[in-house]
Design goal:
four-stranded antiparallel sheet; 4 domains; about 625 residues; about 15% strand; alpha+beta; Helix Hairpins; disordered C terminus
Length: about 625
């Protein structure tokens, strides 16, 4: 009677304890996740507020870039304030109010959120960022009238069609000044490859309005350069707007310094920027300070009231209860097949009991493995009984012959002449061969098979095996051929390797008809030495190939000795090759022949001995 299992070792109790711990960890993790999520939400809200602030700044900067003063900004400011729920106020540098969404008399925040100056801050080119430079929306005298807009738009369409005919895909885009330009599919201004057919220069030629504005910019720039006493021998290029990669071709107005990075080049760049700001100043609103407040939006609050605490503990208790119930159900279903396995394992080994596989989870896999183990044990038992029977059969025949002839010789029925003695010796040799084969197999199974390794040349080994069996092959009218590619070396026991190859060769001679050919080959491949023994016999049936290396297997099911052999030769070959760290395989085609292939690790050729002087 088996001893009762302690409750603390029960799988069901362990699963319940594990599930409770998991549930507690889950609740704690959920609480932590909730805190982290709330923190992330607050951070995201703060990020949204920052993005909202940048959007307000961009809109008001756009207003300043397109209006000469702040007199009409009140309507725009109220619209933005209503949409965002924020207080928005604009003042001068001395806090003189221009416009305010709050009631008159409401005090301003202590600090301004930003300074609006479209001539020095660009909030348009890169959304959500403030770049140094002139806002592209400040176009002033560069704004095209309707007629010029239409003409430039048509020129852009013509060039786009020309680009398309040459395999260049573009799209049109309207700039703040009203000029239509071509951009690539990524939105970048076209400043690269222009097909020759399309390079007419008409689209990039400034219009009369643009030329007039560029002339004025040229004059202002030249005045600044003269003030700094800077003069050049090469034209200085002006673009239609202040951004890099302008759409039109440079407008040449002066000279370019030879040193593009020197002091005179920096002076030129500064003069162009100063002239452009001076040119645009009458068209943009004056510098203003932007003040932002929270307005009427409520500030989110997070608390842990009594009701919230009750909800948290109630949900935690519900989770624990559900976890225990589900775990008990799952554990019960898990334990049932394990009990069936235990019951089957306690049965008598002779019964070979199998258990039903009812699930596809780990217990189902375990049940399947148990059934496979039972099947293997049953097969091994059958093989053991068959091997005992085969050994008895192999030993009975020669012993019966020896005993019979000795008895008749003892009774004086026959004379012990040389022929009888030779026959008895032959039977003794057969008996000894079976015993030696069984000893080799037993040593291999026990891991006690001794190998005396040394560096061996594959070609010499093959020639030795061929020489030992050449007389038998000639007696059977079989042509024995050896083929060796190079001089591969291997570290092996030469006696055992000759035994393995000899078993294959003698087996092939027995199964090759007269007039056939037996080919022995050796070559090196991928760090291995490959031996092949190929005959032109009748071949082996495909269904018999997996069994050729089994002990006492013969192609003749009648176990006749007509072709000789004990049925252990190929099994010994497999064991010997495995002991050398190699593999053996067989390929056969009925009516064409069979090829046995041995693959063993190769070795480096030993260094040649030094020759001393006499």
């Amino acid at each position: 009677m088996s001893r009762a299992m302690p409750l603390r070792k029960s799988l069901l109790v362990r699963l319940l304890i594990t599930s409770v711990l998991i549930a507690l960890c889950s609740v704690a993790a959920t609480a932590w996740l909730a805190v982290q999520t709330t923190t992330r939400a607050i951070q995201e809200e703060q990020g949204q507020v920052l993005a909202e602030d940048m959007d307000i700044l961009s809109q008001l900067s756009g207003y300043a870039a397109t209006h000469p003063d702040w007199s009409g900004v009140a309507g725009t400011l109220r619209t933005i304030s209503d949409r965002t729920g924020r207080r928005i106020a604009l003042t001068g540098g001395d806090r003189t109010p221009f416009a305010d969404s709050a009631a008159r008399g409401t005090s301003l925040p202590p600090r301004a959120a930003a300074t609006i100056d479209p001539l020095r801050t660009d909030t348009y080119t890169e959304p959500g960022a403030q770049l140094t430079g002139i806002d592209p929306r400040a176009v002033g005298p560069y704004r095209l009238p309707a007629t010029e807009r239409l003409r430039v738009s048509k020129l852009a369409t013509v060039r786009q069609l020309c680009f398309a005919r040459n395999g260049v895909q573009t799209r049109t885009e309207r700039m703040p000044s009203g000029r239509t330009v071509l951009t690539d599919l990524d939105g970048r201004l076209d400043s690269g490859y222009v097909p020759t057919e399309c390079a007419d220069g008409r689209l990039n030629t400034p219009t009369s309005t643009e030329r007039k504005a560029l002339d004025a910019l040229s004059a202002l720039t030249e005045t600044c350069l003269d003030r700094h006493k800077v003069h050049f021998d090469h034209p200085v290029a002006l673009t239609l707007d202040s951004t890099s990669g302008a759409t039109a071709a440079p407008y040449l107005m002066g000279k370019r310094p030879g040193d593009q990075h020197g002091a005179r080049a920096r002076t030129t760049t500064a003069c162009v920027a100063e002239a452009r700001r001076g040119q645009l100043a009458p068209y943009v609103a004056p510098v203003a300070e932007l003040f932002l407040g929270t307005g009427d939006r409520p500030v989110p609050r997070f608390d842990m009231s009594t009701a919230n605490k009750a909800k948290v503990f109630g949900v935690a208790g519900l989770v624990l209860a559900l976890t225990v119930a589900v775990t008990a159900l799952v554990a019960g279903r898990l334990v049932r097949p394990l009990r069936a396995l235990t019951q089957a394992a306690r049965q008598s080994p002779e019964r070979h009991v199998r258990v039903p596989v009812t699930t596809q989870d780990e217990t189902g896999i375990l049940a399947l493995a148990f059934n496979e183990l039972t099947e293997r044990r049953e097969r091994m038992e059958a093989q053991r009984k068959a091997m005992v029977s085969d050994i008895a059969h192999e030993l009975r025949t020669p012993l019966t012959n020896i005993r019979g002839w000795l008895e008749v010789a003892r009774d004086g029925l026959v004379e012990p002449d040389p022929e009888l003695l030779s026959s008895l010796h032959e039977e003794a040799v057969v008996l000894q061969r079976v015993i030696d084969d069984l000893q080799d197999l037993a040593a291999a199974d026990a891991g006690t098979l001794r190998l005396h390794r040394e560096d061996v040349r594959a070609d010499e080994l093959l020639e030795q095996v061929a020489a030992a069996h050449r007389v038998g092959a000639e007696a059977a009218d079989i042509r024995l051929v050896t083929e060796v590619a190079g001089t591969p070396w291997l570290a092996a026991d030469p006696v055992r390797m000759r035994q393995a190859l000899g078993n294959l060769v003698s087996n092939a001679i027995r199964h090759t008809p007269a007039g056939g050919t037996l080919t022995l080959t050796a070559h090196g491949r991928d760090g291995q030495v490959v031996f092949e023994v190929a005959d032109t016999g009748g071949g082996i049936d495909p269904e018999d190939l997996p069994s050729v290396f089994d002990r006492f297997w013969r192609a003749e099911k009648s176990r006749s000795r007509r072709t000789g052999g004990s049925g252990l030769g190929l099994a010994i070959v497999r064991q010997l090759v495995a002991a050398h760290g190699g593999t053996v395989s067989v390929a056969s085609e009925v009516g064409s022949g069979t090829v046995f292939t041995l693959r063993l690790p190769s070795a480096q050729a030993p260094a040649s001995p030094a020759h001393g002087s006499g």
